[in-house]
Amino acid sequence: MAQYVELLAQRRPDVVTLAECLSLAAGVERAMLRRTRLRFLPRSTAGVEAELWFSPLVEAAGDHTLLFDPEAAEILRRRLIRHPRPHVEDVRRFTVESHQDARPVTRWFEDMLWADLLPSAAADQHVRSELARVLRALTTGGDSADDLGRWILHYLPRLPAGVRRYDDAWRIQVASSERLGLEPPDDPFVRPPSVITEARALVQRHLSVGVTARSDGVEFSSPPTDGSRLITAPGLRRIRLDVVSVLAAEPDPVRVQLRENQAVRLPMTVLQFLDGDGATTMSVAHAGVASDVVVARSVGSAAYDASCAVLLADGRIALHGRGGVMTGQVPAASPERRRRSLTLSLDGRVLAWAEDGTAVVRDLRTGQERLVSGTSARGELVRVFFTGDAAELARVYAGENRVSVVAGRSTSVVTHGESMGDRLWSSDDAACVASIGLSGTLWIQYGDERDDESTSEALSEGVTAVSGAPDGRIVVWATGDGTVWYRMRANRAGSGVAGSAPWQVTGLAAAHDGRAVAAVGGDSRLLVWQLRGTPTPPRTVALRFCADRVHALSGGGWAVSGTGGPVEVRTEDGRRYHVTPDTQDPLSADEVPAWARGRVLAEVRETPGAGFPELADGMADISAQGVDCLLVRRAVGHPGGEGVPTRGGDRFDGGFQAMLLAAQRHGMRVVVEVEADTELEDIAVHGHSGGLLEDVREWLDRDVDGVCLAHEGDLGDGVLSDVRHLLDGYGDRLLMRMRTTAAPADAVVDFGGRSGGDIGCHVVVPRWDDLLVRGVREGDLGAVRWGRDRSYAADLTSALGLLVSACPGAQWGHTVPERLTVAQRTFAASVLLSLPGCPVLPSSLFQQSALATMARLRRDHLVLSRGTCEVADLGLPGVLALLRRYGDETVLCLANSGQREVRVHIRLDHLVAEENVLPLDLLDLLDGTTVPCSQGSPAVLALEPYGVRWWRLMPAARTSNTGE
Questions:
Q1: β-strand 706-710 against 669-675: which pairing, if any?
Q2: How many alpha carbons fall within 13 Å on the CB side of residue 444?
Q3: How far is it, in rounded angstroms, from Cα 285 to Cα 423?
Q4: Residues 929 and 551: beta-carbon distance below 8 Å
Q5: Which residues contact 117 (CB under 8 A, 6 or more apart)?
């Protein structure tokens, strides 16, 4: 452009001079063009205007306005400054006069051009001041700021580099882009990543994002969908989140961008290596759903040797070595060339796959690839695998009516009729091949017979998975009902049953020695059977993700792959959230209902002026406060109460039914309290609990989710068992009992025994009030005292230990004492939300936003609702310390029962028992801040009077930068 301007100045000097006089303008209108020519080139003709209008100096020209090319405008301004100072100042005054009625952003742009033209200390200060003024306008305005942002993105990139080099100039572009939901333009200057993060924060608001752990990954929604966990993230029209799989050996954050009224699902693929005892020895995770996952049986020691390979959905192949460290990646092929069916050599040094009908073999040491072609007459290439010594690559072709396995010069015909060649297993020497047809028929072939259809045997129907030992000594398969079968090569006459899975098997593997078989079926369990001739119960290995494939490893271990698993979500302002799917083994039908595990119950009762119709009308507000389960207590001053069962009359009216329907519409559970005192007369007179059972049945028929028996004394032999059997017949119903006059040691019998035939309550509320009230009033809630002067912390420890002998799933309930001040009751409610079991809180307390937030956090963090609990003695009588654990997640709960702020020093040995633990970060679940904790440097946690805080333990960040 510079050469063109010089050449044009020689040939058409009037055109260049006119352009110089217009170079300080943001845009040139036709009227301004004419006035400028007459003012500074009075002897020229109108043709000069036309030449400029259509010259290459102009980037865009409309009917009324032209816009100079930015590079040309910069050159023209540098030419203008060579003229005498009076002329330059005259051009500036003329430009200001011509645009005195223009929009402010236009005048501001021209002011910046002038300041850059004559650099000085005053000009520098002026530029800084003007940039700061615009930045403030962007951060404080509403719709007008959006409009300003649009003009800024038009004008600011056209400013000279001398202005754009200022950090505030870049912040203005970033903030404008953020307001409009756009990505900022490219920045030609090198700046720290914190500049862009800080600029976005100037215009961002704290928004609620819904996070839901799915079986295949995690889903984000804005606004949050019903039932999702709520997290807070900065954003405006776009929210940026970095997601990391907790199971990845090398965490690689994936950026998720969420717009308004949008839901985004991020799948996660996980592969874990387990030893013979089920302990994890290696872990790999990738964002997205993998098309195929393969493992090497015995990995070499070279840096390029691969333990496993993952074919990602976009066609890339990720290679991982020992410890899960990524050793390389094969770039994706062109979109029209589809990859499928990975395979690794036994030592992990050679990789092969099928690509667009051709087998590709890659040497991982050299990176060289070679092609292995086949004939299309055999059908479509659907699978490849190495033979035992990796000397040759076997290819599987699926034709119209058969599946062919080609190994070297040999061909085996396996399946006849309907075929599905990609669901095939072969021994290392390809002498034993099994394949599943489209109809679910298992075809198997033994020996070296080739191209002889009579050697292929239809072994079973309805087969969902097949595998075998590498040497072919055993073939295992699973049928649709979950039964796992096996056949020994030495005994082809019959098949045996290894065992039965509770789900349809999706992945099978046989141990190399043929003595065990493992199965997965889409949930978080690996089942392993020992093959001993007769079916045996499987050993269950709990996983942290949903598994759908399993591979046998040398040495007796297993490699399990699937989707989902816990993830960490990081926001732009540094907050971190741990999202854990519920992978705990489901309880059987005769144990606690899944919805009631760790559930918080909001206590409501009908009172004069606030009956069931009023509760129904306000159900939306109750739901918005985080309440998802109601406990309807007996009415005060109304024997029986409206809608409460009475003997011999109408048991229900429209008020209660309207309240029940309103609760159900908002996804809330309803548990009702049943008075058992009068029913005990029937038991004493008639020897049975028929009246009580009739009342309970009436409630269950009305579709309530559970009942709470209100009776402090002994109900008599078999009464609880009778009521429990009645509830179990309705399915998924909760049995609860108030025993607030009995100590936990006496009330534990209401659960029934773990090994005995009697069954009892799911939830029992014993007497906690006295010790809790004393601990709060005296400010020593954290003191651990035993004996006659037993403290609340000691009583809680003892009560938790009693559950070991109770029926599976037994939970203590907790109520808020009445004999406390308002502030103390709020504190007590916060303490109860930190405990395992089922807290029962007055619904009025949920109107406090802090408590409602804690209730939602408890619901969304399984570690708080379902985790184990350990009372920790920190040596501070005023601070109750609880360690809650669930899977790999640990949360420290601290409650300050004193009336002064305390600073608690937490050492690593308070949190973990192991030695040589790596540094940790304690993430405050309530505000998202983190506090480091390491050997020799304890975490210092501040607790306000009557304050309750929750900190999640997580590995310390490797870097402090969580931004770009």
A1: parallel
A2: 23
A3: 24
A4: no
A5: 24, 77, 80, 81, 88
- How deeply is 376 buried, as exposed, middle or buried, from its count of CB atoms within 10 A (0-12, 13-18, 19+)? exposed
Dump strand ranges (E) for 391-455: 393-398, 402-407, 410-416, 424-426, 432-436, 442-446
Cα 48 from chain centre: 65
User: Which DSSP string corresponds to 603-638?
Assistant: EEE-BTTB-HHHHHHTHHHHHHTT--EEEEEPPTTS
CA 322 to chain centre: 27
* Phi and psi based region of residue 367 (left: phi greater than 0; alpha: psi -120 to 50; beta: remaining): left
**Helix, strand or coil, per DSSP, at residue 101:** coil
Instruction: Report which of 409, 410, 408, 406 is spatially closest to residue 396, judged by C-alpha positions.
Output: 406
Is 551 in contact with 519 (CB distance < 8 Å)? no
Output the six-digit token pair for 834.
């930190």
Q: Do 718 and 688 contact (CB within 8 A), yes or no?
A: no
pLDDT digits (tens, 9 = 90+) for 611-640: 888 888 888 888 877 788 999 987 433 334
Residue pair 896/902 in contact by the 8 Å Cβ criterion: yes
Q: What's the gap between Cα 745 and its chain centre?
A: 40
Report the length, in residues, of the chain: 964
Two structure tokens written together for 865 = 């609702």
Tokens of 567: 């993830």
Condensed to tens digits (0 to 9), the pLDDT of residues 885-907 reads 887 788 999 999 999 999 999 98
Q: Which of 409, 450, 417 is nearest to 435 (CA)?
A: 417
Q: How confident is the model at residue 333 (pLDDT cuts 50, 70, 90)?
A: confident
Q: Omega of the bond prior to 84 within 30 degrees of 0, cis?
A: no
Q: Region 315-321: what's the mean pLDDT?
A: 92
- Measured between its terminal Cα atoms, the distance across the chain in Å is 35
Instruction: List helix spans (H) across 884-961.
Output: 908-911
Strands 369-372 and 380-386, by their bridges, are unpaired
Distance (Å, rounded) from C-alpha 454 to C-alpha 471? 23
Q: Are 385 and 359 in contact (CB under 8 A)?
A: no
Q: Kindly report whether the global pTM for this prediction surpasses the value 0.70.
A: no
Which DSSP symbol is given to 364? Answer: T
Handedness of CA 407, 411, 412, 418 (dihedral sign): positive
Copy the structure tokens of residue 221: 């929604």
Give the pLDDT of residue 452: 45
Q: What share of the chain is helix, strand, coil (3-state, %, to 5)?
A: 30, 30, 40
SS3 913: coil
Q: How far apart are CA 815 and CA 77, in angstroms?
A: 78
In 3D, which of 698, 696, 741 has the Cα closest to residue 719? 696
Mean pLDDT over 449-455 rounds to: 46
User: Token digits for 205?
Assistant: 């608001």
Mind spelling out the 3-state secondary structure of 808-853? Answer: CCCEEEEECCCCCCHHHHHHHHHHHHCCCCEEEEEHHHHHCHHHHH
Residue 642 has pLDDT above 60, yes or no: no
Contacts 24+ apart (CB under 8 A), 80-88: 80/20, 80/21, 80/23, 80/24, 80/117, 81/117, 81/118, 83/20, 88/117
Cross-strand pairs, 542: 525
Convert the pLDDT of each residue in 544-585 to its tens digit: 899 999 999 988 899 999 999 999 899 888 878 888 876 555
Rg of the chain over all Cα atoms, to the nearest angstrom: 37
Average pLDDT for residues 61-86, to the nearest whole number?
A: 88
Q: How many CB atoms are located within 10 Å of the residue 785 CB?
A: 14
DSSP 438-452: TTS-EEEEESS--S-
Alpha helices in 712-786 (DSSP H): 719-730, 744-747, 769-778
Calculate the CA 147 to chain-centre distance.
36
The single-letter code of the amino acid at 295 is V
C-alpha 464: how far from chain center:
30
Give the CA distances from residue 474 to residues 426, 458, 520, 532, 553, in Å, rounded to whole numbers and listed in that order.
11, 16, 19, 13, 16
- Cβ pair 506, 465 in contact under 8 A: yes
